[in-house]
Structures are given as C-alpha cells and as structure tokens.
Specification:
Length: 85
C-alpha cells in the first residue's frame, strides 16, 4: 500500500499517462515555471522579514529616507541647471 490506498504501480501508470498527454518539453516548462514561482515566493517572504526588521529599527529607516531625499534634491538641481544651459 502506498499513499491512501494507491499502489506504486498505479502511481506509475498515472505518471506515464501524464507524460504521454503533456509531453516531456511541456512538463519541463511547467517544472521550471513552478521552480521560479517558488523562488519568487521565498524571496517575497524574506523581503517581508526584512521589512519587519526595519520597522524594529525606525532610526535607520529615517536616515535612509533623508539620504534618498537629499539625492533626489541634488538630481533636481542638476537637471534644472542643465536645462538653463
């Protein structure tokens, strides 16, 4: 007995039928798509963990926002000077 009453032979027959219906190339594409989806999900989950860490340290987050605002201001100034010339 295998998984909930399905024997190994029955599982192999089902896999063979799926292989015949979809073909190896399509199954390979489905597998790679599933792999990239799982990687994306894991990446999103780790980004969420980093967001929580940033919320715990608001001082560092404020400093980075200030640096970004300064950079944007400098870029606007440079662009306005270039437009005048």
């Amino acid at each position: 007995m295998g998984f909930s009453g399905i024997s190994i032979w029955q599982l192999l027959i089902v896999l063979l039928i799926v292989l015949l219906v979809f073909g190896t190339k399509r199954l390979k594409n489905i597998g790679s798509d599933m792999g990239s989806a799982i990687k994306g999900f894991k990446g999103a989950m780790s980004d969420t963990g980093q967001d929580k860490k940033e919320e715990a340290q608001p001082e560092q987050l404020e400093e980075s926002k200030t640096e970004t605002a300064d950079t944007v201001t400098e870029n606007k100034t440079k662009n306005s000077e270039q437009e005048k010339v």
